[in-house]
Amino acid sequence: MTEWPQIFAFYSFKGGVGRSMAVLNQAYGLVAKGRNVLVLDMDLEAPGLSGFMSRQKEIAEFARHDMVDLLLWAKQTAQRVSEEAPLDPNSLPPLSDYTVRVLPEKLESLPHKSWDLGRLDVIPIDETRDYYNRLSEVAVAGMDRDTLLRVGSLLRSWLKSRRIPLEIPDYYGPVPDEDRSAPYDYVLIDSRTGITEVGGLCIGPLSDQLVVLCGLNDQNIEGTRQFLTEVGVLKPSSDTAVPLGKPTLFVASPLPIGEMTTKSERIERLVKALGPIKPKLYKLSYHPQMALVETIFVRDHQDEHLAQEYRSLLEQLLQRTETTPDFDPTIFFSSTNSEKTLTDQARKSVRALLHSASISESASMLFFAFVSNSDLKTVTDDIDFQLMDRICRAVASSESSVQFGALDRWSDVLSQWGLRTTDRALKARRFEEAINQLDRIIDSPRASPKTRAEALVNRAVTFGQQGNPEREISDYTAVIEMPDAPAKQKAKALVNRAFMFGQQGNPKREISDYTAVIEMPDAPAEQKAKALVNRAFMFGQQGNPEREISDYTAVIEMPDAPAEQKATALIKRGETFRQQGNPERAIRHFTSVINMLDAPTEQKATALIRRGETFRQQGNPKRAIRDFTSVINIVDAPTEHKDNADSIRKDAYEQVGIQAEANSLNDRGWGRYVDGRIKEAIADLRQAVELDPMNVKALGNLAISLLVDHQTNDALAAYDAAIELADTDRLADFEKDLQRAIAKHGALPGADEVRTRIEARAATLKTTVAAQ
Amino acid sequence: MNSLKASDIEIVGFNGAPLVECGRSLPIAKRKSDGQHCVLDLSRGVDTLVWHSQEEATSFAEARQWTELVRSVSIPNACVESSTGSVITQPMMVFENETLLDVANRVPRPDHHDLEYLIWQPLKVGDSGCFATCASGPAVEAILDDWAQGLLKRFDAMFGQNPDRADLKRIADFALCAARSRELRRKAYLRYAATQEPDRMKRTFDRFIHTEFPKENWDCFLNELKTLRDILKVLPITTTVTQVDPSGCSTRQSLRDIANDKPLNLVAK
To answer: What pLDDT score does B160 carry?
Structure first.
């Protein structure tokens, strides 16, 4: 496993081979790849790298201390510590006392695609501050082997232990410490030339890997071979040298233009000098610009051949250091992961890959496909939102064909994440960021009218979630007024704006927007149906049941209305019929929803509750109980509906008990009536009706008993109530009872009136059935 | 009495300018409904707040009487009554710069304190490494004290290594900026005094320490200082490593096979 940071020492036996510029071009190249890099100028006696950074204003100023001071600290401290009695890590000098940050504006023009730029720090040498005295105090040249080993080890420990803060978006909330700070990814050391102690220090225990640059003349080749053999990178053998332990990249630099034959010979000579294993030789060409002005080619001349060579070298450097973690894409989409939430394994893989240098664009796309398919409402863990945020960020910055889709999804992720927190500040920041992503789409000249209209609608929704109704309405209006917005978005904006007007207590504008959608020839069926349902509701509120029913009917009769809207319309129209005293029609509507194959569970549960309530009103609590029980048994019915059903079922159970008592009183009363004990019968039947006013049988029996007892007015009132509830068969029973009473007791006052009323009701029922 | 609704307020900066490495200050609040600004000091009630126009706020910021954040932050939940949404306790601002956190070994800056989330924002002007956040008073005090503890720990670890007196004084200075609790401030003063030249110690005691700790007695303080020095001087590790003798070795001897030497573990884990 790679130990971070990876420390690379860049060495050349001779000067003038472009070593310092190779260090800087690799450093800037790594930053463009999102890596955090520290450069050390260890060319103590000729600090060209520091001079360049200072002259070119890549750095604003020097820190309190510089590389010479750091070496001095290491030298002094190394003499006092040992492996048996190591140094307290708290006493290691702070990083910020030595490092200088390369100005962000100097990094902005670096080419970067799917990732953010990294950070570039330097520990330079400040030649303006008592340089020579400090240099002589360090006196690296006088260090013996043990001191070099100690100083190198101490510097290495210091470099490996330093952590820098990572730029975590402020809307993340609490993030594990290991994700909020990290060591540098790479430390690149510009070493001293020649056979020197400083060179040995860099190449020794301080560094993990080496990059050796070598010119092609004999002096360079032989000197390099000698030095590398001396320090143990190459091992002397009978005829040549064999590479040893420390990983090393060999670079021929600078390669002249032309001189093909000589160049080939010289390259062959260098490879031969490096040993029979023949390590791969990387090449950096001579560029005339380098002779005149030092340049960051990977930033300032990206199209030049030399920039390409620097990038190739960089790829090698990355490949040697960073390996792609094992990743199985099926973990996202396996059948066992049907809930589309991240498993721990998936999380681990994504995190590792997002940190990895070798994440490809296709891997980013794969992750994005997962984010796109996830049901964000089921995501609860902050860590999952963070991963999704990072994936969307990577894809959204790639300028690929899915960039707008990524921005839109990113905004969704942020809004949902905002809804998850109760912390005001975090919520506000997440919504703000969600809106920022949508702004990027809306403001982009590349966005099509459709994309822009979609983003405006989504931004309006986000403003709504943020509690900003004015801006919400303003964005809907912008879509409605866009001449080239697609009908789908326009209709959606109108429906949503209408709803907002309703919230603001402006029913006139609400109805007007719904009407606009209903009258749009090209509005999608979904929006049209939604507008009709909502307008119908508004008509109902305004006491206009005819128009209310008419709109619900329009939805019910729409062949392409979505099941949800159709079911809503059926339920609402059923409720209107119930209020109009037509329970049978209401029940038929509710039953239609219950029998719909594609009605959403929530609507089915609502229809069952409404039907149950209607059954209860009809005096049929047993059927009501069956409907309420069905709701309770629906696995995925909303909890609110289940609770409601449970509560009204209790009332229905009570109603059944009362009915039983009323039935018993009715039976006894009827027995007494038959026995001619009319007064006692009336007392029983009055009690029965009191207990169960919907008991049509008891009402009828009471009415005939009162008629026989010559209480004609009370009898007619009882008949009115009974006739109102009776169906055709029951009316026929009333007629028969009346005939029998007249036969037994003779003419009864009011009997003709009763007969007239029974006939009138029978005629009404006949007409209604025919109409239905 | 009027109340201040948290939903109508955003924190856009803090009172004063960051002249030291860290500290706390009163927030500058902006009322969203009318764009008016004020120094949010609730000690005398909402009715006494003095509101200023956007133009005045800009002039205060330009005169460095106020320091603006790059992006506004919300009033922390801990200062708001959840049932009414009113600001009921005093929010405070805390600011820091990266150097202080690095020296205190407190990188990265905290993203929460207990259950309070902290959203740090860079300052609009001045040091680019300077950030601030708004939190409840107790959270701000605790954060500053935590940094002070980190700084004192570093001071103690470095004290025995005979570092540059200026380096030590700087750490003690930082610790004095950060420390809020009485106990930590006293420890910080003790260490600050330890970095002074002997002839300046008494003056430091009289001018600073005695002012803040009037019951402190110079003789006792001096004794404590001596004890501290003795303790801290004993802490560092001493080894028997010999001094470098340049004359006794050649470059070639020093470098032979050095690329294959394993690094020594000279820093405790």
So the answer is: 74
Predicted local confidence at residue A401, as pLDDT:
76
Check CB contact of A78 with chain B, cutoff 8 Å.
Answer: yes
3-state DSSP assignment of residue A331: helix
Instruction: Return the CA Rg of chain B.
Output: 24
Q: Is residue B268 part of a domain?
A: no
pLDDT of residue A329: 58
Residues B121 and B96 in one domain: yes
* Residue B66: pLDDT over 90: yes
**Domain finish residue from B111, B136, B161:** B136
Q: What is the pLDDT of residue B169?
A: 93
What number is the ipTM of this complex? 0.81
pLDDT at residue number B256: 83
Min Cα distance B216 → chain A (Å) is 30
How far is Cα B84 from Cα A186, in angstroms, rounded to an integer?
52
Q: Is residue B240 part of a domain?
A: no
In the predicted model, residues of chain A with pLDDT beneath 70 are 1, 113-115, 237-245, 277, 323-343, 351-363, 399, 768-772
Distance from CA of A769 to the nearest CA of B (A): 56
Residues B46, B121 share a domain:
yes
The structure tokens listed for A333 are: 């989409």
Contacts of B33 (CB under 8 A, 6+ apart): B8
Q: B265 and A92 in contact by Cβ < 8 A?
A: no
- The answer to whether residues B33 and B80 belong to one domain is yes
Contact A403, A448 (CB under 8 A): no
pLDDT per position as a tens digit, A331-380: 555 544 455 556 677 777 776 666 654 556 666 777 787 788 888 888 88
Q: Which of B136, B165, B182 is the last residue of a domain?
A: B136
Distance, CA of A600 to CA of A583 (rounded, Å): 24
Strands B27-31 and B37-39: antiparallel
Q: Are residues B76 and B198 in the same domain?
A: no
Which residues of chain B make contact with A83, given a CB cutoff of 8 A?
264-266
Rounded CA-CA distance B249/A576 in Å is 105
pLDDT per residue as tens digits for the range B119-165: 999 998 766 689 999 999 999 999 999 999 999 999 998 887 767 88
Instruction: Give B115's pLDDT tier (boundaries 50, 70, 90).
Output: confident
User: CA-CA distances (angstroms) from residue B97 to A183, A359, A408, A672?
Assistant: 19, 34, 35, 99
pLDDT at B243: 43
Q: Domain span at residue B182?
A: 147-234
Q: Which domains does chain A have, with CATH numbers?
A: 6-321 (3.40.50.300), 658-771 (1.25.40.10)
Q: How many domains does chain B have?
A: 2
**CB spacing of A90 vs B260 below 8 angstroms:** no
A interface test, pick of B112, B258, B265, B269 with most A CB neighbours within 10 Å: B258
Interface of A with B in 136-195 (CB under 8 A): 139, 141-145, 147-150, 152-154, 156-158, 161, 163-166, 168, 170-175, 177, 180-181, 195
Closest Cβ–Cβ partner in B107, B239, B254 for A143 = B254
Q: How far is A308 from A291, CA to CA, in rounded Å? A: 19
Q: Do B124 and B203 share a domain, yes or no? A: no
A61 part of contact set with chain B, CB < 8 Å = no
On whether residue B239 sits in a domain, the answer given is no
Do B117 and A166 make contact, defined as CB atoms within 8 angstroms? no
d(CA B267, CA A89): 6
| B127 plus B41 within the same structural domain | yes
Q: Which of A142, A156, A171 sits opposite B244 (nearest CB)?
A: A142
Q: Which helix (H) or strand (E) holds A101?
A: strand A100-101
> CA of B219 to nearest chain A CA: how many angstroms apart?
30
Is B105 found in the same domain as B30? Answer: yes
Q: Answer with the residue of higher pLDDT: A354 or B218.
A: B218
The neighbouring-strand residues paired with B52 are B37
B269 domain residue, yes or no: no
pLDDT of residue B242: 39
Q: Does B157 lie in the same domain as B125?
A: no
